[in-house]
Design goal:
The complex is a heterodimer of chains A (about 140) and B (about 500).
Chain A lengths: L3 H24 L7 H19 L1 H8 L6 H14 L26 H32 L1
Helix pairs in contact in A: 1-2, 2-3, 2-5, 4-5
Chain B lengths: L7 H15 L4 H29 L2 E4 L10 E4 L1 H24 L2 H5 L2 H17 L3 H20 L4 H32 L4 H10 L3 H18 L18 H25 L5 H24 L3 H22 L2 H32 L10 H4 L1 H15 L7 H13 L3 H27 L17 H23 L1 H16 L2 H8 L2
Antiparallel strand pairs in B: 1-2
Helix pairs in contact in B: 1-2, 1-5, 2-3, 3-5, 3-10, 3-13, 3-18, 5-6, 5-10, 6-7, 6-10, 7-9, 8-20, 9-10, 10-12, 10-13, 11-12, 11-17, 12-13, 12-16, 12-17, 13-15, 13-16, 13-18, 13-19, 15-17, 15-18, 16-17, 18-19
The chains are: A mainly alpha (about 140), B mainly alpha (about 500).
Amino acid sequence: MKSPILQTATKYLLPILLLFSFFLLLRGHYYPGGGFVGGLVASIAFVLHSFANGTEATMKILKHKPLSLIPVGLSLSALSMVAPMMFGLPPMTGLWLEEPIPVIGMIGSSLFFDLGVYLVVIGVVLTILFTIALNNEEESK
Amino acid sequence: MIDNYILAPVFIHLFSAILQLIAWRKTVTQRVISIVGSLMGVILSAQLFSKVYKGGILTMNASNWDSPFGIVFVADLLSTTLVLITSIAALAVSIFSATGISRQRMLYGYFPIFHFLVMGLNGAFLTGDIFNLYVWFEVIIISSFVLMTLGGRKTQLEGAVKYMAMNILASTFFLTGIAILYGITGSLNMADLAIRVKLIENQSLIGITSCFFLIGFGIKSAVFPLYYWLPSSYHTPPSAVAATFGGLLTKVGIYAIIRVFSLIFVPDDFTKNLLMVLAILTIITGSLGALIKINIRRLFSYLIVCHIGFMIGGIAMFTKIALMGTIFYLIHDILVKTNMFLIAGLIRQIRGTMNMASLGGIYAQYPKISLLIAIVLFSLVGIPPLSGFWPKLYLFEASFTNNQYAFAGALIFGSFVTLYTIAKMWSEVFWKDVPESVVVENNFEPMPLFKKTLLVLPIGLLASVTLYVGLNAEVIIILVGKIADQLISTQPYIEAVMGK
């Protein structure tokens, strides 16, 4: 069941949803949002794409298996947790740049922690959903 | 004193797990990372232990938020001793797993999950925040669910359902207790709670809240009448997993009981009597269960329950001598119980079964390995001067000076049943010939020497640590004496966390 309306809509929705998820990620330090919600929205974008074009097509645009995002995200979070120890501060202390960067705003180690969470969430959700989807597609063939 | 590196034993296991996730499906690399990571874990926790032993309690304010507002990690003697013993046990299990776990299980992430589990254990020992303790407990049980179901055999899933149901119930009780405690006092920091709980007027409310914690930790540490999930689930996963569970998981419950009931809820007479009754019933029911089991791992599971009662009894008396007995027993028990399940795994490799009726002849075939195992079994039974003897001595002394004759009787009964069941197991498994009707499938004999070493080495490692604990008991007694002092007079702990 492939509907051309959905396929065309997803073509435009995928980048918008990804942009929105990134917006949620950056906004999360002071306002509602953050890595977890951002990751969920990003994975919804890919799930929508897989509804419209089939799971295999989505796997193609992802290039790598979503499973490989989990260790990348985990190490990003873990490193940003340990990084303050290099400066003689307790683990998980927020390190901040002096000057804000345009558009993104203040950058600190907690942003990298959130980015790690974002990647882990995408990795976990897509791995679970793709495994189920591929099993179902095989059964229905 | 503030030390930013006290979480090193936690981080080392986190990073080993992440590296193993990067090396997903490369089982050889994962094995090497696991053994190296666990070895570094032992070194780091030994360093931490010696720092705390020489310099006193260390604390670390996570994210640089001062306590009681942020999450604080505290390394006192009890925590660091347990972190060290846990790391040694984890090293042994990790070496054993290199050959004792099937490749199929490794492909689905056995090693990363194992390291997440050990990370959770170390974190639970080191945290000084009651809600953070709950979070570490969740890390532990979620990893243990995966380890228990990995492989997906029918019996495993059956055991896992019982295990999961009881553990979720325990977590709910624990979380409810935390919520009520926070509602009453407005704090989650354990040292801060220790101060605030004493100032509450309605002490009976505090007593009821403590029952929530007792039930929650009681389920986790398998105390009567909440222990039945343990013998019905611990015999299902592979032996290396059962060794981690049997040696370490129930002991976290005991640790939590010791910590919470020495620091926050100092036991009154009612709590002491309640704990004592539970201890006696745990010993009796556990040993009665052990009497009738013929599967080795089911037998060991009931012995775990029985010996949990010994430790609860020590906490119930709450004198210096009794606590020394409990902590010494805790150290001994982690080492020996982990080793017992590894031995069960080795026996399975040698004979292909764990049913005592169809085992036999191991002493005739492998005399050296059998002697190594005998050391462990003797330590478990408590033959002087091995490690099981000394803590029982202290527990006996405490029970006579506190007029707890029923507990002394239960101790004698429990020790006697342990002796009987282990003697029965020794004669059935090691001395008796293999029954003629049984076809032996020996997977151990055709293995190359390297693999054999990987199976026997961890048993030898743990046995030598047990021997050290037993023969060098003077050192351990000084250590547990200091720990017991810290548990009874909590002022240094509170001062270290809250500042003077």
